[in-house]
Automatic annotation (TrEMBL):
<dbReference type="Pfam" id="PF01130">
    <property type="entry name" value="CD36"/>
</dbReference>
<feature type="transmembrane region" description="Helical">
    <location>
        <begin position="439"/>
        <end position="461"/>
    </location>
</feature>
<dbReference type="GO" id="GO:0005764">
    <property type="term" value="C:lysosome"/>
</dbReference>
<protein>
    <submittedName>
        <fullName>Lysosome membrane protein 2-like</fullName>
    </submittedName>
</protein>
<dbReference type="GO" id="GO:0006622">
    <property type="term" value="P:protein targeting to lysosome"/>
</dbReference>
<keyword id="KW-0325">Glycoprotein</keyword>
<keyword id="KW-0472">Membrane</keyword>
<feature type="transmembrane region" description="Helical">
    <location>
        <begin position="7"/>
        <end position="27"/>
    </location>
</feature>
<dbReference type="InterPro" id="IPR005429">
    <property type="entry name" value="LimpII"/>
</dbReference>
<dbReference type="GO" id="GO:0005044">
    <property type="term" value="F:scavenger receptor activity"/>
</dbReference>
<dbReference type="GO" id="GO:0016020">
    <property type="term" value="C:membrane"/>
</dbReference>
<comment type="similarity">
    <text>Belongs to the CD36 family.</text>
</comment>
<keyword id="KW-0812">Transmembrane</keyword>
<keyword id="KW-1133">Transmembrane helix</keyword>
<dbReference type="GO" id="GO:0006898">
    <property type="term" value="P:receptor-mediated endocytosis"/>
</dbReference>
<dbReference type="InterPro" id="IPR002159">
    <property type="entry name" value="CD36_fam"/>
</dbReference>
Length: 481
């Protein structure tokens, strides 16, 4: 009888222990924190780790798509009318971007590398061949006119040469020439007096099978939030194109990797050499990619807002105080003086005037927003789309009749969509991690469940023990009578 009572009370004690332990673990998030600690230690740029292999040679296929804006009314534009453009594309390239010349430094806390990018044309994923013709603004001619417009001798000489060669404000070139470069007659002629001037022009000239310079990254060995964060670019820890220290800062990763254990409240910083600046993205919504749950981050409109909306952006107005408006960025200072203006495709999130200036602009969130979908535990990119538009600042230049009576405007030339979706092998690895995560996170709830079951058993046994005792007490008076 004593042994039976001990067993019953032992069940009750175990029930209480399981309940108290389970509830304590849930309230203190012990197992989620333990899992995060393990991931933080494993996601490091170090030889032999999966994180390093994925960083060095991304397993998921990356595609670069180009959409051109074909100008349909060049003569009317020279007479001062609004430009009308038609979007033509995509012209799709498979992008390969391995990290090369990898060299670890400072006891493994930093690593240097160059990110060589190669683009291979994919005809089956494109609207047409690279030989398709596009009519657009003559960027080399406009750059030359802007550069020499205040030099009376040179401007008249250049204007005369342009008339003799029938060189105008607009040109018709193939997709391949506009992207990767062509020898320009005007640049070649000016090269005789300006030897430092390159006579080849292309919007992405010298970027195929090339890199944008040497990066030094933090490996994340000392702090998980420093994983793949850029320390220096081309030996410099800051930029010199902008007019404030804040705008010249190099912040975040290069946009291809992010630290593990990401929360919905943090800013994800990135440095983009294409945009010549750093920017950040904020949490937007939960998403599911190939069955994997993730967080979607996107740059808010404040990132490219005018200084009146976001005073921190005052440094991006070049020259100082010369602001074009929200949603556009003058990058001529880092593009060899070419009047290049960057924006989101179709001037998405830009001032309405830029959309109204060009007939054919149809901005929408789904097609034109830059987005990054991330697995919050590992920091692995599930899906991403970087969307940037290349525009040219056009204005009438009195000393060059080639500009006619053209309006002052920001004229779109091409926009790119650099996209990636996680590969199936990486999906399987993440699904295994997700299962392990669910098991570990649910251990406290399993303990609580076991405690409840044991509590039920304890109550049942206690009731069963008391029933025979009460029955026996009722029978004794009957026997005595």
């Amino acid at each position: 009888m004593l042994l039976k009572s001990c067993c019953i009370y032992s069940v009750g004690v175990l029930s209480l222990l399981f309940l108290i332990t389970g509830i304590s673990l849930v309230l203190n998030n012990v197992f989620p924190h333990l899992l995060q600690s393990v991931v933080k230690k494993e996601v490091v740029l170090k030889n032999g780790t999966e994180a390093f292999e994925a960083w060095e040679n991304p397993p998921a296929p990356i595609y670069m798509q180009f959409y051109f804006f074909n100008l349909t009314n060049p003569l009317e534009v020279l007479d001062g009318e609004r430009p009308a453009v038609v979007e033509i594309g995509p012209y799709t390239y498979r992008e390969y971007r391995p990290m090369e010349q990898v060299n670890f430094q400072d006891n493994g806390t930093k690593v240097t590398a160059v990110n060589t990018k190669t683009y291979i044309f994919q005809r089956n994923m494109s609207r047409g061949p690279e030989s398709d013709l596009i009519r657009t603004v003559n960027v080399p001619a406009l750059t030359v006119m802007e550069r020499f417009k205040d030099e009376p001798f040179f401007d008249s000489l250049i204007s005369s040469y342009m008339k003799s060669t029938d060189e105008g404000l607009f040109t018709t070139r193939t997709v391949g020439e506009l992207l990767w470069g062509y020898e320009d007659a005007l640049l070649r002629a000016i090269q005789t007096v300006k030897p430092d001037l390159d006579d080849v022009f292309g919007l992405f000239y010298k970027t195929n099978a090339s890199n944008d310079g040497e990066y030094m990254f933090f490996t994340g060995q000392q702090n998980y939030k420093d994983f793949a964060r850029v320390d220096t670019w081309n030996g410099e820890s800051s930029l010199n194109w902008w007019t404030s220290d804040e705008c010249n800062m190099i912040n975040g990763t290069n946009g291809a990797s992010f630290h593990p254990v990401i929360t919905k409240t943090e800013k994800l910083y990135m440095f983009s050499s294409d945009l010549c600046r750093s920017l950040y993205a904020l949490y937007e919504e939960d998403v599911t990619v190939k069955g994997i749950h993730g967080y979607r981050f996107a740059p808010p409109s404040e990132v490219f807002a005018n200084m009146t909306v976001n005073p921190a952006n005052a440094g991006f107005c070049v020259p100082a105080g010369n602001c074009l408006g929200s949603g556009v960025l003058n990058v001529s200072g880092c593009k060899q003086g070419a009047p290049i203006i960057m924006s989101s495709p179709h001037f998405y999130q830009a001032d309405e005037k830029f959309v109204e200036d060009i007939f054919g602009m149809k901005p929408n969130k789904e097609e034109h927003e830059t987005t990054i979908d991330i697995d919050p535990l590992t920091g692995i990119i599930l899906q991403a789309a970087k969307r940037i538009q290349v525009n040219v600042y056009v204005e009438k230049i009195p000393s060059f009749s080639q500009t006619g009576n053209v309006r002052t405007m920001v004229l779109p030339v091409v926009y790119l969509n650099e996209s990636v979706v996680i590969d199936d092998e990486s999906v399987m690895k993440l699904k295994v991690i997700a299962v392990e995560q669910n098991v570990v996170v649910n251990i406290p709830f399993m303990l609580i469940g076991a405690g409840i079951i044991l509590g039920g058993i304890f109550m049942f046994l206690m009731c069963r023990q008391k029933i025979p005792e009460s029955t026996a007490a009722e029978r004794q008076p009957l026997l005595s009578s």
